[in-house]
Design goal:
It is a single chain. The chain has 388 residues and is α/β, with parallel strands linked by helices. The protein has two domains: 310 residues, Metallo-beta-lactamase, Chain A; 38 residues, no CATH class. Helix content is 21%, strand content 22%. The strands form four sheets. It has a nine-stranded mixed sheet with strand order 1-16-15-2-3-4-5-6-7, with helices on one face. The protein has a seven-stranded mixed sheet with strand order 8-9-10-11-12-13-14. A two-stranded antiparallel sheet has the order 17-19. The radius of gyration is 20 Å and the shape is globular.
């Protein structure tokens, strides 16, 4: 049964109303408010679960706290490390019990070197994939500097987070596409549940469902920034969320979120939040109900590919003047110059990679980074002239 979801305007009302939610039973309907705000920099009631979907532009970063415990899932790209550090400090985070890098793409682990260096970290969960990039090397170097070792999670592993817990659902197999090796997990607090899957695509989602894992959740962190290569009909039906959150950068060059995904969410009546439109989004759970700090987006506007300039984090995402938030030159050297992975498309049977919209893709195109396509031996299509 879906929990009752609330949306509120001010931080004062946000937390005051939350204290009353324990009196409310579970409902199938979602309660809506026309008011919304991102001003959430107040201490949450003790022992409650907060999930911060942090606006890091075209990337992912999620802070989760429960009681005195804290966890970070992904850390945005290389240019967001210091901004993420500032946000964590603004939430009184000085140490992290868990740090998770869902997979080694730059837009997910780019800021991890700063986080690992600046914060005391407990368990660091990474996949077994080792990527030959400066971004990945920076994370490894930061871990070596702090004396940390990575933990390889296995499906079924469950970890405590205060009074909450999270269970690893994937990766179950070693797939060719790095995205399909993403760490997927289900976060549970009382009767409320949140699902995360990194950049998992159709292949990994099918594997998760084939494992018969219970993925039902109230809030679905949509895979791969809203790409049409993720969030299959079958996965969406299995999760059956009341709400969805999409983390993407405004005007990103990939066109995220794609219209196909937005249409699915809209048709299913799923209330959808978007960092590209709304900035940082925060959900608060008392174990029975979930309260958001803003109303869901109502534009249903797909991303427009072509722009490479993502907006800076929204107001409240990277507070200025936070002690210790100054850039670390040793860690951020050349960090601004490192670009996001260029994405191309391949088919299951072909030996060429293509630009989006190529007539040879038909309905079978699968998104992959240009670097990975070349590494796998694919050649550029001569018809659509993809990036080289």
């Amino acid at each position: 049964m879906k929990r009752k979801i609330f949306y509120q305007k001010s931080a004062a009302i946000f937390f005051a109303l939350f204290l009353l939610l324990g009196l409310s039973g579970c409902q199938d309907r979602v309660s809506l408010s026309k008011d919304f705000s991102t001003d959430i920099n107040q201490e949450a009631p003790a022992g409650k679960l907060t999930v911060h979907y942090i606006d890091v532009g075209q990337g992912d970063a999620t802070l989760i706290t429960c009681g005195e415990d804290a966890m970070l899932i992904d850390a945005g790209d290389n240019s967001k490390g210091t901004a993420l550090q500032s946000y964590l400090l603004s939430q009184d985070i000085t140490e992290l019990d868990y740090v998770i890098g869902t997979h080694p793409d730059a837009d997910h682990i780019g800021g991890l070197d700063v986080v690992i260096t600046k914060f005391d970290c407990g368990t660091i969960l990474l996949t077994g994939e080792e990527k030959d990039t400066k971004t990945y090397d920076d994370v490894v170097s930061a871990m070596e500097y702090r004396g940390y070792k990575k933990t390889l999670p296995s499906p079924g592993d469950t970890f405590p987070l205060g009074d909450a817990s999270f269970t690893i659902l994937a990766p179950l197999f070693e797939n060719e596409d790095s995205n399909d090796n993403s760490i997927a997990l289900l976060l549970t607090y009382g009767d409320t549940r949140f699902y995360f899957e990194g950049d998992a695509g159709e292949e990994e989602e099918e594997q998760i469902l084939s494992s018969k894992a219970d993925v039902g959740a109230d809030v679905y962190k949509i895979g791969h920034h809203g790409s049409k290569t993720s969030t299959t009909d079958e996965m969406l039906d299995a999760v059956n969320p009341a709400c969805a959150v999409i983390s993407a950068g405004e005007g990103n060059r990939y066109g995220h979120p794609h219209a196909e995904v937005l249409n699915k969410l809209r048709s299913a009546g799923i209330k959808t939040f978007r960092t590209d439109e709304q900035g940082t989004i925060v959900a608060l759970s008392d174990g029975k109900n979930i309260l958001f700090n803003m109303s869901p987006s109502d534009t249903w506007q797909a991303g427009e590919a072509g722009s490479v300039s993502d907006r800076e984090p929204a107001k409240g995402t990277a507070p200025s003047g936070v002690p210790g938030a100054e850039p670390n030159d040793a860690l951020t050297e050349d960090i601004q110059g490192e670009k996001q992975d260029v994405m191309v498309y391949i088919t299951d049977s072909g030996q060429k990679y293509h630009a989006q919209g190529c007539r040879f893709l038909k309905d079978s195109g699968r998104e992959i980074s240009l670097q990975d396509a070349k590494a796998k031996g694919y050649d550029p299509c001569k018809v659509c002239s993809p990036p080289q």
